[in-house]
Amino acid sequence: MAEVFLRFKAHYGFQITFCNPYAGHEKGNVDYKVGYMRLNLFVPLPTVTDVQAFNRELLDRCEADWQREHYKKGEAISRLFEQDKKTFLYLPKTSFATCRYTREKTDGNGKFLIDGKHFYSSSPEWAGRELVVRIGAHTVEPFAPNGEPISAHIRMFGKQRTDSVYVKTTLSRLLQSPRAWRNSLIRKALPERLREEMDGLERAELKEVLQTMHDLSGRYDFDTALQAMEQAAKLGALEQCQ
Question: Which domain of life does this protein belong to (predicted)?
Answer without folding.
Answer: Bacteria
